[in-house]
Every structure is written in structure tokens, then in C-alpha cells.
Specification:
Layout: E1 5-12, H1 16-32, E2 36-44, H2 48-58, E3 62-64, H3 67-72, E4 78-81, H4 88-97, E5 102-105, H5 112-125, E6 129-132, H6 139-149, E7 156-164, H7 186-189, H8 191-202, E8 205-213, E9 218-221, E10 224-227, E11 233-240, E12 245-251, E13 260-267, E14 270-275, E15 281-286, E16 297-300, H9 321-338, H10 346-365, E17 369-370
Parallel strand pairs: 1-2, 1-4, 2-3, 4-5, 5-6, 7-12
Antiparallel strand pairs: 7-13, 8-11, 8-17, 9-10, 11-12, 13-14, 14-15, 15-16
Helix pairs in contact: 1-9, 4-5, 5-10, 8-10
Length: 374
Amino acid sequence: MAHSRQIGIGIIGGGYMGKAHAVAMQAVGPVFDPKLRPRCEMIATTSAAGAADKARHFGFLRSTGDWRELVADPKVEAVVIASPQGTHQEIALAAFALGKPVFCEKPLGRNLAESRAMLAAAEASGVVHMTGFNYIRTPASQLARQIVAAGEIGEITYFRGEHTEDFLADPATPVSWRCHGRAHGAMGDLAPHMLNGALALAGPIHALIADIETVHRQRPGPDGPEEVTNDDQGHLLCRFESGAMGALHFSRVATGRKMGYAYEITGTKGAIRFDQEDQNALWLYQGSARADRQGFTKILTGPDHPDYLPFCQGPGHGTGYQDQIIIEARDFLHAIETGQPVWPTFADGMRVNQLVEAAFRSASGQCWIDVATV
């Protein structure tokens, strides 16, 4: 029996996503039994003491308060970037210069220029690179992609997608880091997930027109009211290269919405509906059904659907948020082990940044934008 080999993993960032990736690296072996097994070698945060605490908590062998030390360490053979967006480019370029594979959380860069520079460095290095878009990896959304690809709902005529949450819906919520910097607004923070989902499910977007706004322009600060300098919500109409029409909406002030990553796909033979708040169900309409049996059917995910069985043998028992990150870890390790890219790469991350930039240009000029010109 062949033995699995190990690879030293370094994670930069010990917050929400740093913890999620640390848990994923600890769990991916028992869940998927990959040929390449991660060894949690080092974690980096902004202070040596904080990093040491995270290493103990997350199960890393070593820690550092300087990400440069982590990237340069010979026992760190692959890097996971789970730190704020403003750090992504510098870290990725340093890792690629040393020939180390990189998994980078979305958005890839703070802007399109950074993303293009990161993609160029990734391709020049010849090593594996991936961007973190976890929601599209649920068994239900993987099933939706299979249904679309197989032509079961015919030609796509319309796609409606949203990523809506309400963590800043209350205007009395104090100002925070989320209220400054384009990359932290709704278009930089939430939109990338659904834009990636739209590309995965309906194909490339040819042109778009967008409207973007800040709903609550001031929030309580430590010294009184403080200006909010980024966007709360935006929406866009688009045309896919296939000719299909689309409408996308993104908001962090959508009262009542907690994880509103949702989409509807209308085709000539059927339709699909999905809502991340019920992530273990996919609704399918088949136009071929006899007239008295027509209607959306709820499909509960189970062992027959993509990436479900490794987690659970029971249909309808479901998978959760952390499982999406474990699937990402499996894909990253597989890409390194085989030397073959696994979707989504930095190129896919760059395309999302390109759409975000196109949306801002459209909103500023109140006009349609040909995405290829951005």
C-alpha cells in the first residue's frame, strides 16, 4: 500500500478565515485521504505572542509575527493567504519568487491592477495557484453546474444572482475597518463570491451596467459621527457571452438576510433555484414533466452528489460552511500533487476583479461597459 507524503503548510492570518483554513488542513486528511497530506508547519499573525497563541489553538508546529519569515522558511512548502486584502499582493509575489504554491482568499487583490500583477507572477513562477471562492463548492451548487453542463435545463436565457447580508443594516452600528477602502465595501467583499458563481454557472460576462451606493453615509465613531467611504450595496444588469441576460445584486444592508448567496437560472427546458441559507437543497424545474406534475422539485443533497459522501453517509443530513473550506483544501493539495491547475485559479480571481472594476466604471459614467475593454 502506497504511503501518503507530507507537505508543510504555512497560513498567514489567524482570524476568521485563518482559523477556517487551519481547521480544513487538519481535517482534509481524515475526510478525503489525499495522497499529499498537509503538515501544519507555521502560522503568522501580526504579533509573535498572538501567533504563538494561534499555533497552540490551531495545532501548528511553529509560529511567527512576521509573514516574511513564514514564506522564506524551507519547511513551509505551500502558502495559504488568509490575511487582509491589502497584504495579498506582496505575500503572493514573495512566495512565487521562491517557487511556492499559493492559495489566496478572495478578493485576489485590492483592485484589478494588483490582481493582474499577481496573476502574471503566478504564471511566470509555473507553480500552482488558487483563489478562495468557497460557496460555489457546496454539493448543491456543484450539482447545479453539472445539470447546466449536461444541458438538462437547455440553453440559459436568464441568470439572477445575489449576495446579500445585513451585518451593517443598522445605521447605529459603529464604524469599523469594513467602512473604509473599496476592497472592504459590498462590491469588494460580497460581490466577488456571486460574480464567481455567475461565471461558473452561466459563463463569461460580455457587458454590464451598474449602480452602486452608500446607504448609511455616517456611522458612530469613537469621537462622534464618522464618514463611511465605501459602498453598502450595488446592482448590475449584464449580458453573458452566450447571449443570456443577467441581474446581480450585492448588499451588506439587506435587513433580514444572513447568508443570501442565492441564484436562479432559467433555461429553455427547465430552471434551477438555490439559496445558501438552505445550502443542502437545490430546486429543479423540468419542463419535460407532464402538465399535472410540473413544478419545482426540492432535491436534498446526499451521497450521490459531488463531495458529499466523504463527510456523511446520510442523505439530507447535510454539509456546512467549514466543509466548503475542506473541499478547497483537498483541491489545493490535489493541484500541488499533480502539478495541474484546479479551478478557480488566479486567472479566475482576476476576472472577478475585472468585473468589479467594470461595475465601478459603469456606475461612475452611468453607461454600459464592455468588460473586455477594462
